[in-house]
Amino acid sequence: MTAYPAPAPAPAHGDAAGFKLLALFLGLVVCLMGFFGLWLALSAQHARDDANKAVAASAQAQSMPGMDMSSRAAVAGGTYATPSFAGVAPANADALAAAHAAFPATLPAAPAGPVAAVRLEIGHRVVSIAPGIHYDAWTFGTTAPGPAIHVRQGQLVKVTLVNNAPMPHSVDFHAARIAPNVAFADVAPGASKTFSFRATDPGVFMYHCGTAPAFMHIANGMYGAIVVEPRSLPKADVQYVLVSSEWYLNKAGNRQAAGLDVVKAEQMTPDWVTWNGYAGQYKTHPLTAMPGQTVRFWVVDAGPSLNTEFHVVGTLLNRAWVDADLRDAPQRGIQTDGRAGRRRRRLRRQDRPARHLPVRLPLLRERHARGGRAAEGGPRRRDDEPLRGAAYCR
Ligand SMILES: [Cu+2]
């Protein structure tokens, strides 16, 4: 009997269809894997491009003199801003404060005639911001704040901006109604520009550098006040211009000039808060008025971030024009007001011989906001003292 191998069973019709589906599925998987691989490759290339751009941007930022971006990188890496340097003072701080030439707070005279020529030269220079404390600032003129500018309502303000700094800067006048993309455009290093605007709105306004990032340029010292005096205003015997601002230091500034700590600026935790750029200068060099005189303060909060709520200890302001719209009736009997970037004008009458203390309020909120670290009014502030103002009237 011959044995024959049993023939292999013919595949059933259903099995054949299953193989086709399997093959189709595997083909799709291969295609998808191919696309996925291509996507991964493109993503990796984009990531490399982004990383290269970030490195280039970081290198550019690092190359800006006076601007320390390293702490921002540290934050990204899980660390924080540099420690506070509030209240750092050398042993001879009192002598340094006495020897310091206080920023001139007296309102300068307005030019006569229909045109007020304003020339601002921009530079980078080391300035003193407190006794024994130095800062590598960017300035209009030679100081931070820049010079107080006084014009009369209706005058044509002709601004000449000269950039002597090694990087682009600009100027933005809040008193101007103008095309900012033209008038406030960047000026290259070594270049200059001229533009004009009509001073139609009376009040006191901030001017500042508007080059991006503007808050860093302001934090580095590029701000000032322009007073547009209306045609008729009650007489004042004494007029002062006060500009408040914050300083965010990347080092103490006592041995080597400090620069900007960007993270502190972003976190609004300044080391120093000043009137006219130097802590406590009007404590050692008081602003004065005689009994019976009317004193007018033109106050600008340059920030760049914190509010200044101006208050004179021991008296009230007879009249106050909040946000300095002098066409409105003034508020009367005001104790305090103010927000960052705003402007305001106050009038008070000195009734008797006295020492008064203008301060920034509210003290508690600012102390909490800064962890009790910010200092104003001198190098000897302890954390259990209130923040002190810088100006006195006598
Ligand atoms: Cu600038």
Overall SS class? alpha+beta
Q: Let me know the average pLDDT.
A: 75
What is Rg?
31 Å
Helix content: 10-25%
Describe the biggest sheet?
6 strands, mixed
The percentage of residues in β strands lies in 25-35%
SSE string: HEHHEEEEEHEEHEEEHEHEEEEEEH
C-alpha geometry = globular
Please give the order of strands in the largest beta sheet.
12-10-13-17-15-16
Which ligands are bound?
Answer: copper (II) ion
Low-confidence stretches: 1-12, 34-38, 40-44, 46-63, 338-394
In angstroms, what separates the terminal alpha carbons?
136 Å
How many β-strands, per DSSP?
18
Number of helices: 8
Question: What do these coordinates show?
Answer:
The protein has 394 residues and is of the alpha+beta class. It is built from 8 helices and 18 strands. The chain has a 6-stranded mixed sheet, with no helix packed on it. Strand 15 and strand 16 form a beta hairpin. The longest helix is centred in the first third of the chain and has 51 residues. Copper (II) ion binds next to loops.
List keywords for this structure.
single chain; 394 residues; alpha+beta; 18 strands; globular; disordered N terminus; disordered C terminus; binds copper (II) ion
